[in-house]
Amino acid sequence: MQNDLLLETIKTTLQKSKIEKLAAIASEDTFSVKDLIYLSFYHDEQIGFRAAWILENVFANHQQRFLPYVLYFWRNFHNKTIYRH
Fold first, then answer.
1. Which residues contact 3 (CB under 8 A, 6 or more apart)?
2. CB–CB of 45/54 below 8 Å?
3. Residue 41 · residue 83 · CB < 8 Å
4. Cβ atoms of residues 57 and 19 within 8 Å
5. What is the Rg, in whole angstroms, of the alpha carbon atoms belonging to the chain?
6. Which residues, 6 or more positions from 53, have their beta carbon under 8 angstroms from its beta carbon?
7. What is the pLDDT of residue 30?
8. 16, 32, 51, 69 — which has fewest CB within 10 A?
């Protein structure tokens, strides 16, 4: 799953079961956790929220996929400048 496909997927309302499924997909290298972090700072708050929700589930259930991106996440969380229109 690429960034554009992920973006299209999270544009719609998601339920917890879909979030968990997307987190599992992220744990399988189907799309980059870095892309998920990137979308967590998206200018549309609903999309950013959904991406962050998936990211939370990746962190909680698939830490081995999240840990390589901890510094990237932290730098961008601190600055909140990752997403450019």
1. 31, 32, 35, 38, 39
2. no
3. yes
4. yes
5. 12
6. 14, 19
7. 63
8. 16
